[in-house]
Amino acid sequence: MKKIMITAVLAAAAAAGLVLSGCSKKTGTAGGLTLEKGVLKVGMEIGYPPFEYFDTDGKTPVGFDVQLGKEISKRLGLEMQIVDTAWDGIFAGIDTDKYDCIMSAVTITSERKEKYDFSRPYIGNGQSMVLTKDSKVTAKTPEELGGLKVAYQAETTSDIYMTKLAENGLKFEAEEYDKVLNCFDDLKLGRVDAVVADSLVSVDYVNKPDSPFVMAWKADPTEFFGVCMKKGNTKLAEAVNKALTDMYADGTLVKMSEEIFGSDMVSGAKNQ
């Protein structure tokens, strides 16, 4: 994120225990918990509601992962510093020590686990298909979207899902977007026929008052989100896992889920 915020905004954010940054000085403390003493730098793509997005003021990050990051940082005795990063470069930021971890609706996959360490899962997710309420599309599943314009966010598990369908012979017009909110914007405007996205994201759009959307299909949870960290950063991984375990035990995670999703969306990931 470009540093365009005035000092007063930074001061207010710091007072709230949250700092936005595009880059900051690294101390790289050898053997320490984090790159900078006293600070947990969190890579996050702020444009993926309800997990991370800007509030109505256009400046304040809110969402499930933002709350999660604040709570984990608090339990670790650290200040959270968000580094707003485009999704297509978010993993590279871990490789180059731009931040300590990623909390940005990151699905734990076997391929990613080969390169990075992950915390225990904190929420479960499946794919979903969203249409407008007045849509003439008759498809009941993504497999029936042949010949239609299908929107999804690039470099996500939705992208992987639709790519596999294409490899298996489904012919559709792929519309890839940098941010998931643009998918829903264009669906509302009639520029695409359907959106394929995480069900945890879709439910937020569908459940809004006067929403023009309907969830036409939802898969059972087969994906689980976790905190992504650099390979071998065992101290941080252990600390984050203890914080998550405690948050499961004392009900903090369930409370966060009920506040944001309207129901318990986390307990299904507890024993994964």
Note down, in words, how this protein is organized.
The chain has helices spanning 7-15, 64-75, 90-95, 110-115, 157-167, 180-188, 199-206, 234-249, 252-261; strands at residues 18-21, 39-44, 53-54, 61-62, 79-84, 101-102, 116-118, 123-125, 127-132, 149-153, 173-177, 194-198, 213-218, 223-225, 228-230. With 272 residues, it is α/β, with parallel strands linked by helices. The strands form 4 sheets. It has a 6-stranded mixed beta sheet with strand order 1-5-2-6-15-7. Strand 10 (149-153), helix 5 and strand 11 (173-177) form a beta-alpha-beta unit. The longest helix has 16 residues, at 234-249.
- Helical run tally: 9
Oligomeric form? single chain
Main pleated-sheet profile: 6 strands, mixed
Strand order of the largest sheet: 1-5-2-6-15-7
Shape: globular
Beta strand count = 15
Rg measurement, Å? 19 Å
Q: State the low-pLDDT regions, or none.
A: 1-19, 21-31
* SSE succession: HEEEEHEHEHEEEEHEHEHEEEHH
How many angstroms separate the termini? 34 Å
Q: β content, as a range? A: 15-25%
Assign a percent range to the helix content: 25-40%
| Average pLDDT metric | 89
How does the helix and strand content classify structurally? alpha/beta
